[in-house]
């Protein structure tokens, strides 16, 4: 995870990973049959510690789902290495042919669907302005969180991610 | 630009760049003394076609500056290769030690400053809700635009960048 976070998937070499864990490259490839396999496992491990995946699999309730986003962002400020891994891999994975491309496409589709439902639920509960388009707000919320991570990693003292997300969530109120 | 957009700075090799322009690696290095130098020139070329840089250097007027963002986003939908270059390089450049790290830190500082002034101007002109914190809105606007690019590149048919940005700008009204 550290090597891919620092150097990306393309820039991170099997040799450096093997060196860091004290294995030969052959030893590493005994556990992970290829670099792509290693990437898939790293993403799975990252997701396991991330609420976003839980979101995408559960049935959201509007207010809880939106409050959960703010909580996720607060949590992310404590795990900069994982945030960097995500930013670096998502930046690479926009390229067609990147081994994580399809998984990122599907991840964002699931997130937009999940948050779109959450916003619509929030509207029915009277927590969210009924004039807003749930699909637009879902896309914006995800974009806001992704973009904040880039600014925060580059300049942590200047960018307060939770404050910005909470301010945006508050602006959705009726 | 195409090689760095597709493979990133770290993943893009001088050999591939030389091949694509029909030069030997020595020939390429005659024009650009190093891969880092080539990256600096690619970023400069990219910036030259980007209004963001002009923003950061001009004196913004609130309404024009914010309208200019929406226009920039509409323009970006016509240049996916440049957007991919930006997403891939910014994703890599969060790593300390990346040759573009400092330039991205400074770029975002300048953008936040510029847009913070623009939002405050908009508030004085009565276009923007005076209760909003200009620094928070500036950070959010940049984050929204950056995050949208990731989703749009991954799924262009599902993500309408201008609509989302215009909806956000509209929500800032008094």
TrEMBL record, chains A, B:
Domain (HTH tetR-type) spans 1-50
So which residues are the signal peptide here?
none
For molecular function, the Gene Ontology terms on record are: DNA-binding transcription factor activity; transcription cis-regulatory region binding
| PROSITE patterns associated with the record | HTH_TETR_2
Keywords from the UniProt entry: DNA-binding, Repressor, Transcription, Transcription regulation
Gene3D superfamilies per the record? Tetracycline Repressor, domain 2
Q: Which Pfam families match?
A: TetR_C_6, TetR_N
Highest taxon above the source species = Bacteria
Tell me the DNA-binding residue spans: 13-32
InterPro entries xref list: BetI_C, Homeodomain-like_sf, HTH-type_TetR-like_transc_reg, HTH_TetR, Tet_transcr_reg_TetR-rel_C_sf
Which residues are listed as membrane-spanning? none
Q: What protein name does the entry list?
A: TetR/AcrR family transcriptional regulator
Species of origin: Cryptosporangium phraense
């Amino acid at each position: 995870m550290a090597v891919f976070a620092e150097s990306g998937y393309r820039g991170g070499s099997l040799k450096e990973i093997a060196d860091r864990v004290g294995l030969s490259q052959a030893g590493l490839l005994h556990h992970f049959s290829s670099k792509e396999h290693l990437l898939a496992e790293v993403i799975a491990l990252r997701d396991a510690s991330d609420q976003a995946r839980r979101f995408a699999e559960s049935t959201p309730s509007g207010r809880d789902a939106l409050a959960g986003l703010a909580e996720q962002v607060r949590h992310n400020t404590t795990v900069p290495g994982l945030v960097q891994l995500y930013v670096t891999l998502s930046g690479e994975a926009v390229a067609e042919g990147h081994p994580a491309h399809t998984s990122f496409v599907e991840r964002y589709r699931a997130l937009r669907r999940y948050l779109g439902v959450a916003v619509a639920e929030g509207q029915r509960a009277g927590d969210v302005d009924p004039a807003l388009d749930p699909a637009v707000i879902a896309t914006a919320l995800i974009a806001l969180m992704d973009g904040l991570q880039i600014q925060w990693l580059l300049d942590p003292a200047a960018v307060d991610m939770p404050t910005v997300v909470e301010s945006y969530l508050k602006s959705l109120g009726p």
